[in-house]
Protein backbone atom coordinates (compact mmCIF):
# COMPACT_ATOMS: atom_id res chain seq x y z
CA UNK A 1 0.00 0.00 0.00
CA UNK A 2 1.25 3.47 -0.78
CA UNK A 3 1.91 6.09 1.85
CA UNK A 4 -0.83 8.66 2.44
CA UNK A 5 1.33 11.64 1.43
CA UNK A 6 1.79 10.23 -2.09
CA UNK A 7 0.01 12.50 -4.58
CA UNK A 8 -0.71 9.75 -7.11
CA UNK A 9 -4.39 9.49 -8.12
CA UNK A 10 -4.34 5.70 -7.76
CA UNK A 11 -3.60 5.76 -4.04
CA UNK A 12 -7.28 5.48 -3.10
CA UNK A 13 -7.85 2.34 -5.18
CA UNK A 14 -6.62 -1.20 -4.72
CA UNK A 15 -7.49 -4.18 -6.89
CA UNK A 16 -8.68 -7.30 -5.07
CA UNK A 17 -7.93 -10.89 -6.12
CA UNK A 18 -11.47 -11.33 -7.45
CA UNK A 19 -11.17 -8.35 -9.80
CA UNK A 20 -13.18 -5.94 -7.67
CA UNK A 21 -11.74 -2.56 -6.73
CA UNK A 22 -11.50 -1.61 -3.07
CA UNK A 23 -11.83 2.13 -2.42
CA UNK A 24 -10.09 3.81 0.50
CA UNK A 25 -12.90 6.06 1.76
CA UNK A 26 -11.21 7.34 4.92
CA UNK A 27 -11.12 10.84 3.43
CA UNK A 28 -14.86 10.73 2.80
CA UNK A 29 -15.57 10.55 6.53
CA UNK A 30 -14.59 14.22 6.82
CA UNK A 31 -17.06 15.41 4.19
CA UNK A 32 -19.58 17.79 5.71
CA UNK A 33 -23.13 18.33 4.58
CA UNK A 34 -25.41 16.09 2.63
CA UNK A 35 -24.01 12.90 1.12
CA UNK A 36 -25.62 11.27 -1.91
CA UNK A 37 -25.23 7.97 -3.70
CA UNK A 38 -25.90 7.41 -7.39
CA UNK A 39 -26.38 3.96 -8.86
CA UNK A 40 -25.88 3.56 -12.58
CA UNK A 41 -27.68 0.57 -14.08
CA UNK A 42 -26.78 -0.81 -17.49
CA UNK A 43 -29.88 -1.80 -19.42
CA UNK A 44 -27.92 -3.63 -22.13
CA UNK A 45 -27.06 -6.54 -19.80
CA UNK A 46 -30.48 -8.10 -20.26
CA UNK A 47 -31.26 -8.55 -16.56
CA UNK A 48 -34.87 -8.47 -15.45
CA UNK A 49 -35.99 -5.47 -13.38
CA UNK A 50 -36.11 -7.51 -10.16
CA UNK A 51 -32.58 -8.84 -10.65
CA UNK A 52 -31.30 -5.32 -11.39
CA UNK A 53 -33.06 -4.00 -8.28
CA UNK A 54 -31.53 -6.74 -6.12
CA UNK A 55 -28.05 -6.00 -7.48
CA UNK A 56 -28.54 -2.27 -6.79
CA UNK A 57 -29.70 -3.03 -3.25
CA UNK A 58 -26.60 -5.14 -2.60
CA UNK A 59 -24.38 -2.39 -4.02
CA UNK A 60 -26.05 0.26 -1.86
CA UNK A 61 -25.94 -1.70 1.40
CA UNK A 62 -22.45 -3.17 0.98
CA UNK A 63 -20.44 -0.03 1.91
CA UNK A 64 -22.51 0.49 5.05
CA UNK A 65 -22.11 -3.08 6.25
CA UNK A 66 -18.47 -3.65 5.30
CA UNK A 67 -15.79 -3.56 7.97
CA UNK A 68 -14.28 -0.06 7.72
CA UNK A 69 -11.17 -1.18 9.64
CA UNK A 70 -10.03 -3.50 6.81
CA UNK A 71 -6.86 -2.43 5.03
TrEMBL record:
The keyword Nucleus does not apply. The keyword Lipoprotein does not apply. Its EC number is 3.1.1.29. Keywords: Hydrolase. This is peptidyl-tRNA hydrolase. It comes from the Eukaryota. One of its GO terms (cellular component) is cytosol. GO terms for molecular function: peptidyl-tRNA hydrolase activity. It catalyses: an N-acyl-L-alpha-aminoacyl-tRNA + H2O = an N-acyl-L-amino acid + a tRNA + H(+). PANTHER family: PEPTIDYL-TRNA HYDROLASE 2, PEPTIDYL-TRNA HYDROLASE 2, MITOCHONDRIAL. Residues 1-27 are annotated as: Disordered. Residues 1-19 have a biased composition (Acidic residues). Pfam families: PTH2. It comes from Pichia membranifaciens. Belongs to the PTH2 family.
Amino acid sequence: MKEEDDDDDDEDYESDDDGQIAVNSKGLNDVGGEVRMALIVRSDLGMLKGKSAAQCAHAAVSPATSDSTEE
